[in-house]
Amino acid sequence: MTALWDYLRDNHAEIQSWAVTTLWLSLLPLLAGLALALPAGWLAARHAWTRDTLLALSGALYTIPSLVLFLVLPELLGTRILSAVNVGVALTIYVFALLVRTITDALTAVPSELLAAATAIGHSNLQRLWAVQLPVATPVIAAGLRVAAVSNVSLISVASIIGVSQLGQLFTLGESTETLTPIVLGLIFFVVLAFLYDGAILALTRVLTPWRKAARP
Amino acid sequence: MIRFNSVTKRYADGGVAVDSLDLVIDSGEITVLVGPSGCGKTTTLRMINRMVEPTSGHILLDGRDVTQIKPTELRRGIGYVIQQAGLFPNYTVLDNIATVPRLLGKTRRAARRQALELLGKVGLDPALAGRYPAQLSGGQQQRVGVARAIAADPPVLLMDEPFSAVDPVVRQQLQRDLLQLQADLHKTIVFVTHDIDEAITLGDRIAVMRNGGRLAQLAAPAELLSRPADTFVAGFVGRDRGYRALGFASAGHLPLHDEAVLRIGEPRGAARDRGQDGWVLVVQDALPLGWLRTTALDDAADDPVTPEMLNLGGTLADESGTLREALDAALSAPSGRGVVVHEDGTFAGTVTASEVLARIESRAAHLREQATR
Ligand SMILES: Nc1ncnc2c1ncn2[C@@H]1O[C@H](COP(=O)(O)OP(=O)(O)OP(=O)(O)O)[C@@H](O)[C@H]1O
Ligand SMILES: [Mg+2]
Description:
The structure holds 2 protein chains of 2 kinds. Chain A contains 10 helices and no strands. By secondary structure, chain A is an all-alpha fold. Chain A has one domain (2-210): Orthogonal Bundle (MetI-like fold). In chain A, helix 1 (2-10) crosses helix 9 (181-208), helix 2 packs antiparallel against helix 7 (125-159) and helix 5 runs antiparallel to helix 7 (125-159). By secondary structure, chain B is α/β, with parallel strands linked by helices. In chain B, the strands form 4 sheets. In chain B, strands 6-7-8-3-9-10 form a 6-stranded mixed sheet, sandwiched between helices. The radius of gyration of chain B is 25 Å and the shape is globular. The A-B interface holds A 113-114, 116-124, 127, 131-132, 135-136, 209, 211, 214-215 and B 46, 49, 51, 72-73, 75-76, 79-80, 82-84, 86-92, 99-100, 103, 131-132, 134-135, 148-149, 158. The structure holds adenosine-5'-triphosphate and magnesium ion. Adenosine-5'-triphosphate binds next to helix 1 of chain B.
């Protein structure tokens, strides 16, 4: 335990800057992936052919090994191989791929009678999406988002292999110097981060869907 | 007025749901579409607000072809209630009701204030305003559904089996309240049901449909019961239609008998003196309560008559009610003497089944005579 504290104190400045990068790398791709997946999921939920196309695409994206993506993206984006942008884009792609399916399923699962009622009293398609379909689908989307957030955090640690400076460095460092302390410290950081995301999304969902609490006996 | 001009709907898979339907729905009336499952009632209803577009033919709303009106605009001017109410689970009761006024551009404040007024109108406690639909009973949900449909005061109301998911007692209450609301609002209501009894209770006119969305008969309830157009309608209307038709025949001035009544709290001894054929009618403030069997009284002659001692089996017939009510009162009374009440519920007199039957006989004879003339 004291070894952890000592290590933390000695490498304080470096770990802090890694932590900031890690936070950005975990948060921005999550938000960007969600922002892209929402319209895609909506489109997929509307027609059979868009559904098939988009789900096939997102499935294909998800099967690309992360390491390959980290290595190929610099070529495609024209960035340097060590740039954090590569990791950010790669993570966004994974979040997107994961969420498109969830959002499509969540939107399709809204009872058709409910949608018919919304249409029947005069909602346009967009009003209906905003007022009824999206709110009712929120709990399922949020569940998918929790999975994406956690998988996102664990993927960041992999990114350290290609040398982007973030908390994943603790693992490569520990391995190269054959010391356990940084590895344990890194583990703690990532587990805490995963829990933070999980808890935050859960809390936000509760706030956004007060009616679900009311529905429970 | 809603007019269907040879309207046909053929779905993409080739099935004809509605086949060259001609139908006129009068303003300010309740027109009930009734028929077996799959006969095209919902399709017919949904063509009015363009949820379903006809394959051919025209639907005119007050002379205007509905296809000339923008769907969202058309629908905001037509109330719609579906089975299970179709309430938005994520909105409170108040916001559910306020939906259409909001869509029409009212401020949230104004829409909510209006919604609050409507709660009382559909028989809901204003305390329910902040609840979510999941916290309401089925009957309450249906009332919210009705309130939402009339919130923007549309002249036309479409109702697709709105009461079929609630139990019979609640359904009867909802039907009664709808009729009361309609007496107030005079909407043009198109009401879909597969329950002929509900159709007869609610309809000013009833359109009986047969499979393939064809109109079998359009008539007022009494006419439907007494003169079904063909064997299909006759079968659908049911076997006891002769009896049910009495529900539309005024009893007129029945020969009422006076009755020596007993007030609640009077000594039991008095019952034996006033009883007739072993039964005496017990009242409270002139309102009939029930019948007391005089032969079964024990010896405590000075003890008062209490409500627990009464037989409550008899129904009450209204003085200005129907022959069916009067006959039912007579048949259900343990004394064989049906209790008839004034409009304010006070005791008017009694009538026997044979007297009501005599009235029914003479009415039937009169109708036969008219028919042969
Ligand atoms: N979207 C659709 N696509 C294809 N066929 C349909 C569609 N909707 C309804 N139908 C068919 O059209 C016919 C009429 O359906 P409709 O829903 O109007 O009947 P209904 O009288 O309302 O029946 P119910 O009493 O069961 O509600 C049925 O045979 C039904 O299978
Ligand atoms: Mg139907």
